[in-house]
Amino acid sequence: MPICKIKNCNKKYYGRGYCQGHYNNLYFYPSHKKHIRQYQNEYRRKHYPPTKHLCFIPKCNNLVLVKYKYCCLHRKRMAGKIKDLDLSKNLKNLVGRFTKGKLNVNWKGGIAEYPNHYLMKKNRLIILMQNPKCEICGKPAIQIHHKDFSKSNHQLSNLMAVCIKCNCNLRNPKKPNTSKYRRLFRGTLPELSKKYKLSPSQIWRRIQRKIPLNLPKYQIYRWRYQTELDNYLIRNKNGKEICL
Length: 244
Known about the structure:
It is a single chain. The protein has ten helices and six strands; from the N terminus they run H-H-E-E-H-H-H-E-E-H-H-H-H-H-E-E. 38% of the residues lie in helices and 8% in strands. It has 244 residues and is mainly alpha-helical. It folds into four domains: 1-49, no CATH class; 52-90, no CATH class; 117-171, no CATH class; 181-243, no CATH class.
């Protein structure tokens, strides 16, 4: 007869290698006994292997997923994106070295897109303090727009406060930032919900299931029944219906 795993416990086997008392303490009731915790940890290590481990580089304490050998920073170093960096050093003390300046991955030679970038930043703060709302739609303004579309003229008279959507529309007037519902159904979700007196989630479900938006609720079941019949019926040339 099988016996419990725990030492000096010769009781009858109940489940997962334990007697009924130890099984309940281990899986149902919280216990402070050391031997129970020991077997609980062993079971978890055996059946639930760890998902992370330390980087294989010595003196590197960064955690990595099991499918990788090295941490993200050492992988970039090996790929050649980060240069002049000692692999044996602890990278947590060197975070400032490769996140700033030439050691940054996104370094573009120190050339800004807008000349005289400091003046543009200063004037942007002034305009956003004067006009906290977008000058086109009235929503909270986050960006600025150059009226003459030049990247060098940063005068206050040439700048206007806009939101992200209006700024995209001004940059690309031929392709405005419109929603897919407006392109397909001539209206956004809030507009369609007001028009058909349905919630946005109900409209999304009807579009997904290809149910007409103007169909009343009490006719949905009849519409589904008719569509199912149409799928199973084939009309003959003489007009007779033949069931599959």
